[in-house]
Amino acid sequence: xxxxxxxxxSLTGVLAxxxxxxxxxxxxxxxxxxxxxxxxxxxxxxxxRSFSHKEELVSLLEQTHQTLPNNQACMEQIxxxxxxxxxxxxxxxxxxxxxxxxxxxxxxxxxxVQAKQYEQxxxxxxxxxxxxxGEDHDLDEIRFVYTTKDLAWSKKMLHDEANGQSATDKExxxxxxxxxxxxxxxxxxxxxxxxxxxxxxxAFAKDAKTYSDFFLHVMHHFFKDEGLLYxxxxxxxxxxxxxxxxxxxxxxxxxxxxxxxxGEENFVRKGYAKPIGTDASNAHLFYxxxxxxRRLDFEDGQFFIKDTSATFSKEELLQLVEEHPERFxxxxxxxxxxxxxxxxxxxxxxxxxxxAYWATLKDVFSSFEFKLTPVLPRLSVTFIPRQVERHIYxxxxxxxDYLMGKGEALKQSWLESQHSFQIEAVADQTLAAFEKAxxxxxxxxxxxxxxxxxxxxxxxxxIEDQIEFLRNRMRKEIEFRYATELTKxxxxxxxxxxxxxxxxxxxxxxxxxNIGGEDIFSRMLDEIHExxxxxMLVYL
Length: 540
Fold this sequence. Notes:
Family: Belongs to the BshC family.
Protein name: Putative cysteine ligase BshC
Distance between the termini: 5 Å
Function: Involved in bacillithiol (BSH) biosynthesis. May catalyze the last step of the pathway, the addition of cysteine to glucosamine malate (GlcN-Mal) to generate BSH.
Low-confidence stretches: none
InterPro entries: Bacillithiol_biosynth_BshC, CC_BshC, Rossmann-like_BshC
Pfam family, one: Rossmann-like_BshC
């Protein structure tokens, strides 16, 4: 394995400004990683705060991790967290099937690396923690996986019916999950670890009861030796701990709504699109009604759920929090707030999209007398199989061109350089000459009768179709002659720019494990001692 770091030129959008043009966004954040001393400042700020619920939280973490296999590293991290000055590096993601796309794993790896680094720098315990967004109820965002066949990616969906339940509550259909896993592994090139990986996932499918449960077991399998801790936001026991802060959110709802709108307006004024873009009545909380997770709204002093008869006064909602905290959950605005209240978070690891919405929340945080949690961009990686590396090297091309979506143009340019047949030029000339030659024929037909004119139009289209047919057959003849090399190009495109998307957004972690080895994540962590700001290439 060889690692290459690309420069900051590979960055785009808000992330590029956050890293390269920090002054553009610095007023939207309380801490900037580009500033000297931000880490010590954050530690000192945390030391002045009280986390009176910490003992309950640690007890919940112990209950969660005691049942996991190979949990020694996790239990050691929980022991560290009991210390008064302990802090955490937090990241999180929805409970995707088979862990979701690779960027989920890269978030976890970033948290692990940064926790180790900050622990050395601060000389205090720093623990990595993964926030499983089990409260999320959007099933379509988590019940799929991409697999390959004949150098083409396809999306495989788990056959299950969304019913408004969260990922923590929604039971997995075991038979359908087993079928999905079987389909997924059919697309794998057989390696020495393929069978073992499949058996492992099938075992998890048999034991897991819910989407969150399955996700937890898969992620723990990847990082069991690193002691990455997991907190399921949909856990009813966690809701009981969060109860006081849900009340505070409800008490401050008008101010929260006002500051959320203001924060997004400030972000948009800097030239960016709205990352959240919700309506002003959104209360940024969900309530479980009839066993379905429903959005709460707040307007004119009243809480309500749209398209239902459910309405609540502030006092009634506060009483419901007291009696049934398990019915409440956060959205994209209040989740960061809850994490800040709940955990001594030294930093949060975010993807580019998350970074954008975090940039709107500083005023929301200040409403609760919090500073905005420091935000760290996650690791961004493209892995390069050996055969792809050999192909690119042999053609004297650059990996970055493929990452930027130029791979198809490279393929066509190479193909055109291999022959001297002027297929396109001659075909275009033929069509132009035919158009000119056929025009008098159509005109004559039009003079004779409307029916003949219609026939002449169809005649023209038929002949043009035949010319295009021959053009395409000539193209295919050239492609057939150079099929071996073109297949290598297709393979490079398949791996480096799948479905014309960044690899980390399409490819599943098990796909990488299959070709890179079951210890690939551990080996990467051994090599990465500091998270680079730019994109990283990993040559297998």
